[in-house]
Structure formats: C-alpha cells, structure tokens
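Q: Got a minute? One more chain.
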Amino acid sequence: MRIGVVSPSSLPKSERLFKGLSLLRDQESQLIIGKSCFHYLSPLERAEELEKMEDICDLLLCSRGGCGSFQLAPFLTRGFKIPICGYSDITFLLLWQYAHGERAFHGPMLCDFQRPTDIQPSFLPFLRNDITLPYRYPGMKRTWPLRLGQAVGRLLAVNLSLLIACLPFFGDKLLDGSVLFLEDVSESVDSMERYLWALRHYPTFARVKGVVFSALTETRRASNDYRLRDVLTRWAQEAGIPCFIGFPAYHGKYIKHCLPIGGTVEIDSETGTVTLLSLGGALWNS
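A: Always. Here it is, folded:
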C-alpha cells in the first residue's frame, strides 16, 4: 500500500514525524513523504501537493492537525480520488471529501504513532476496506449515557469547533441522517457550551439521528459553577436524541479507531456500543 504522508494544516515536529515514519514502515507500507512535512508551504502549494500525491499513492495520511486546512478551499475544485485520513483540523478535508463523493477516514495521524502499540491492528485493514461487516468497535471501557436510545445513520466524525466553522461553507445537507461523532481539545467549558448551542440551533440539526462524544480533552473550567458533564447531559436531553460519551477517537495518548465518513453506523447509548454496518460513501452524489 502506497501511503502519501502530507501536512495540509501545520508542520509536524521532526522527532515525532521521524518516529511515526519508522513505525509505519515496519508495517511494510511504502511511504511517499510530501514536502509539506518538512517546510511551510503556501495554501496553493499544499493543495497542489495533495493533487500530485493522489496520482502516485493509494492513501493520503496526514502527519498532524493544527490549523490551516480550510485555507486550501480556494484552490480545490474536486474531491481527491484516494482516501484521506486524519482528524482535528483535518476535519475540513474530511468534509470536503464527503461533500464531493469521495472517501475519508476520521482516524489516527502519523505523529500519533510513537510506540508500536499506537498502530492498532485494524488500522491498515480499514484503509484497505479489508474489514468484515458488521464490525463492532472494541475498546469502550468507560462510557456514560447522556440520553438513552439507539440510532442508525451516516457516520460523520468531526472536530466540534471545526464543524461549527464549516457548516455555513458546506450547507444544509451536511447533517442529513447523520450520527455525529464529536471531539475537541484545549477548549473551555464555556466555548463547548456555545458550540453545542449553535449546533442544536442549526436549521438541519433536527435531521441528526444521534451523537457520540468521543472526548473533549484538556477542557478548561467554566466561568459558571457547573461541569462539562452537566453541559453535555443538559444538551443531550434538550436535543432529544441518543447520546453517550467515551468512544476512543480523539486527542491525547489514547486508542484512535478509524471511522469511515459516510458509513452506516448503529449506536446504543445505554451499552456504549458502536457497530459499523457499511463503509458507506458520499452525501451529495448518493
């Protein structure tokens, strides 16, 4: 499998980049490393690099998130013909792929691979579509139901703050029939409350089937006397759809599962389980 390693957002730290490359090479994958991993490139140059990579690679694996993937928007005219994998700031490109009928994975990035155990056994099989369906995701050791129920819908895994920023750009159909997987990092309880309020009042939020909070890591305290758990519980009850928290696909030194954007997923908030029913596909072109 030919993996193109790219940095469409921020530059990676060199020691984490080289460690990740070494570990991934041990998986017998052919790696093609983009210039964006070593030098700051303009948004146009980063967009051109992605388009060149798609002709010689089977997958675009982002080195890290950071900030800046949305800067590529003026220079992109279509979806990439090969899947892209990442999370955090890469959310913009995941949604770009989804909106243009192409494949994307909310999954670990190269700099997440710092120990051999960081590369989950299912990582490359997922990217090769070599997964037996239905697939019950393992690893849910601590989950908490926020509103009981079951839901089936299109898997849409995103960074919460990026989703709020991207909703006006991608339009009303984005949330149709979705089960949202939400994560974020280094926000405050206050900012999370604002994002969630905005999301619930977005015109097409009524078409969302359920929500899974992967985790909201390194969250700073609120200016009010309540916790993030209180905010999430109240929001879930007001949203009136199945919700739970604890799915491992988020920032930090934790397991990060691959989530195929647009796949069909079933969640059960009481048991905290996630089952992938199909690898799915596009929104606009389906």
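A: Helices lie at 14-25, 43-53, 91-99, 123-127, 160-170, 189-200, 228-239.
Q: Perfect, thanks.
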